[in-house]
Amino acid sequence: MKVSFLFSACLAAAFLAHAQQTSPTRTTYGSVERLAPELDALLAPSAQMEKLAEGMHWSEGPTWLKRERALVFSDVPENKVYRWSDKDGLSLYLSPSGHTGHGEGFAEPGSNGLIIDRAGRLILCQDGDRRISRLVKRDGVTGTYEPLVTLFDDRHFNSPNDVVFDHAGNLYFTDPPYGLAGRNQSPLKELMFNGVYLLRPGAAAILLTSKMTFPNGIGLSPDEKTLYVTQSDPDAPVVMAYDVKADGTIDNGRIFFDARSLVRADRPGLPDGMKVDSHGNLWCTGPGGVLILSPAGKHLGTLRTGQPTGNCAWGDDGSTLYITSNHDLVRIHTLSKGLGF
Description:
mainly beta, 5-stranded antiparallel sheet, 1 helix, disordered N terminus, Neuraminidase
């Protein structure tokens, strides 16, 4: 009994120390770069990012749990999902999150992109398991998962990365090789391309395009007539736009925004995750932080995090943008609202 008590006390102390390390006093973070007057309708002149938590290895995939009034996000290399709320601060939510079995050869084995379906259930891109799954239940921090898609043409995916639903419940997702050690040269890679896919409920995945070198973040316009996909390729760091046809497949791929002129040492990062607001503006992570792009592709400004930045998502009432910035979790209040709020 005494040994058990001491062990529990040590665990509690260790968790408290971790929480203190990852929940610092709120401080302002980075800066807001204003490039066009249109930004004033999206961000108040006084808007400033603030740090909420730190200490992650590589934070990604933020999504808002409306029922819990909390944010969840992935720490991809550490194979964990964390939960953050104003009430409770930071806590471990799922472990493991993306590599739930056995096997070697994964550089980033955890979950990556996260999203909530129409029933309020958490959907995870699981890099290590090379699938997209639904969280069925939690027992402590251990999850039980139901795979939604595991194979394409009887081959394993590379490492599903990011996802977006349309109003009909169809799921669009990207599949770069970032979860695999060696990426395109990994001996585990079974598909000789990196694809963008459509998954209809109860059906097999449909390959939409295999022409992007490193497809990454993905989003839909408010009218769902345009699909946006980022390409995290240092030689071609772009955001692509595609027309969405009546059957959900895509056509007429073109460069929506070319970030090559922004890639330099003082702007770390490449096009990565994105979210679209209710007016059709793209809030897209990229060189320097979060790029704010108009529906016409005009660069209105940047949330300068100073870090490679993985993704972002709206929470609270839809006008708080949470940002996974490398080792940190930050937020900023916006005048626009995210889709779905």
